[in-house]
């Protein structure tokens, strides 16, 4: 806990001495609204409290003054009392002016909360700050776009519709097309009244109640019809999203500055620098394949019969995301042991520069559960023949006519797929968990259909 010699100013704002600058700013906002004279019938107690709040914030928002106050209990040990009593004269800013500067409006020592006007000086309009650099940055809008492995392999374009709040283009966020000068205060926003009590003259100023201190007002006929005086509109924007070939699960497509331009806050509508629309790719699980190190594919549990594992022959892969039918030749004499992992180069996922990763296949050898005596003798006789003597081997068990067929041979290079698969499944689980908890900003209006059922997955042999 931060130690200070005097915590009075912190106590006024209701924050600890270790509060951040943002916490102090937030506390001032809440307390200034709560104790503003307009909301408390202009009682003397509320006026005094409001002055104390503004004084505390004026000191604590300044790093140098705050440091001196924390060390000595005063911003200037020799001049503190003089500065505090002549604060308005030296700075040219009253407590009401400080309040108005903080919230972006005019002087606020009078009727600030006019029911017919918005908090930010417009008829229910959005607050517009004088400079874009002074505006806070608004939140990003995140959306998860679901894609199949086939869509990621080939790339796709999707239409995505999102709703967002933007400034009205017609009135530029002003809520109206023309502001008229207030006749009561002459455009100053402040009314000055003088009363004479014998030889004494009393003069005081208050915020003009007719214009809420802005010096201008919006006539009914000048209110913007597009936004009904709100200064902002809720619009539906359709974005054209391109999913590039080979994109990874969780990879982001960022549309800068396309998020909300006006956001809701505890004080109403607030004009902000638009955040980004972030599209996060969510790759759906595939029936047969999973990705290894982003660019390679793994086909687990590709079943082959005992004859093919011993004598060689073709293995047909019918569910590759490219849509092609793959013919994998197991060469005669190349024994496929149970659990053997083989590599097909260049048949993985697309990479940059037109390259492709590899396809890794893990083979499962299907053994018969039992053999009849005559089958055993026939098998012994068959295994005694030369490899490839059976002329019937090699015919595909899937339809080939009219399809593009790519023929490949196997290599012995293979990585440690067990570790990679465990890592992949953990990433998938984390992604699905985050997907179930995430906030839905908008519906995915993609014109692409849902994931089609995978047909004839895996591989077959004859």
TrEMBL record:
CDD domains found in the cross-reference section: DnaJ, DnaJ_C, DnaJ_zf
Entry GO MF terms: ATPase activator activity; Hsp70 protein binding; unfolded protein binding; zinc ion binding
All residue ranges annotated as the CR-type domain in the record: 155-236
GO biological process assignments: establishment of protein localization to mitochondrion; protein folding
InterPro entries for the chain: DnaJ_C (IPR002939), DnaJ_domain (IPR001623), DnaJ_domain_CS (IPR018253), DNJA1/2-like (IPR044713), HSP40/DnaJ_pept-bd (IPR008971), HSP_DnaJ_Cys-rich_dom (IPR001305), HSP_DnaJ_Cys-rich_dom_sf (IPR036410), J_dom_sf (IPR036869)
Sequence segments annotated as region (Disordered): 421-462
SUPFAM superfamilies, A to Z: Chaperone J-domain, DnaJ/Hsp40 cysteine-rich domain, HSP40/DnaJ peptide-binding domain
Start and end residues, zinc fingers (CR-type): 155-236
Biased composition (Acidic residues): 444-453
Alphabetical UniProt keywords: Chaperone, Metal-binding, Repeat, Zinc, Zinc-finger
Chain ranges of the J domain: 8-73
Protein name: KLTH0G08756p
Species of the source: Lachancea thermotolerans (strain ATCC 56472 / CBS 6340 / NRRL Y-8284) (Yeast)
């Amino acid at each position: 806990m931060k130690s200070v010699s005097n915590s009075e100013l912190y106590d006024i704002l209701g924050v600890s001495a270790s509060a951040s600058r943002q916490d102090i700013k937030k506390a001032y906002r809440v307390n200034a609204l709560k104790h503003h004279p307009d909301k408390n019938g202009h009682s003397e107690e509320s006026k005094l409290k409001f002055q104390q709040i503004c004084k505390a914030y004026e000191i604590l928002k300044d790093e140098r003054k705050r440091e001196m106050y924390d060390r000595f209990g005063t911003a200037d040990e020799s001049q503190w009392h003089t500065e505090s009593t002549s604060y308005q004269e030296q700075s040219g800013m009253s407590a009401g002016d400080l309040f108005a500067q903080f919230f972006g409006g005019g002087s606020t020592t009078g009727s600030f909360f006019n029911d017919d006007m918005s908090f930010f000086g417009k008829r229910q309009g959005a607050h517009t700050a004088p400079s874009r650099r002074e505006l806070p940055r608004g939140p990003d809008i995140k959306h998860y776009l679901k894609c199949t492995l086939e869509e990621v392999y080939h790339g796709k374009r999707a239409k995505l519709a999102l709703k967002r709040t933007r400034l009205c283009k017609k009135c530029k966020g002003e809520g109206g097309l023309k502001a008229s000068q207030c006749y009561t205060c002459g455009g100053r926003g402040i009314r000055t009244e003088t009363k004479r009590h014998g030889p004494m003259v009393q003069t005081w100023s208050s915020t003009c109640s007719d214009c809420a201190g802005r010096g201008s007002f919006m006539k009914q006929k000048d209110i913007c019809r597009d936004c009904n005086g709100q200064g902002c509109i809720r619009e539906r924007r359709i974005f054209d999203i391109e999913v590039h070939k080979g994109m990874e699960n969780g990879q982001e497509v960022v549309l800068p500055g396309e998020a909300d331009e006006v956001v809701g806050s505890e004080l109403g509508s607030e004009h902000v620098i638009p955040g980004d629309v972030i599209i996060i790719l969510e790759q759906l699980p595939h029936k047969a394949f999973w990705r290894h190190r982003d660019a390679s594919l793994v086909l687990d549990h590709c079943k082959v019969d005992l004859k093919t594992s011993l004598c060689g022959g073709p293995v047909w892969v019918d569910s590759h995301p490219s849509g092609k039918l793959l013919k994998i030749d197991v060469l005669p004499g190349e024994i496929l042991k149970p659990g053997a992992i083989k590599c097909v180069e260049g048949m993985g996922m697309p990479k940059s520069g037109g390259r492709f990763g590899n396809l890794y296949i893990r083979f499962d050898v299907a053994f018969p559960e039992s053999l009849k005596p005559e089958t055993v003798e026939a098998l012994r006789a068959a295994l005694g023949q030369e490899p490839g003597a059976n002329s019937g081997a090699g015919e595909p068990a899937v339809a080939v006519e009219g399809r593009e067929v790519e023929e490949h041979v196997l290599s012995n290079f293979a990585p440690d797929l067990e570790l990679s698969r465990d890592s992949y499944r953990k990433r998938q689980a984390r992604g699905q968990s985050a997907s179930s908890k995430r906030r839905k900003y908008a519906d995915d209006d993609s014109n692409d259909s849902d994931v089609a059922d995978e047909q004839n997955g895996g591989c077959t042999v004859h």
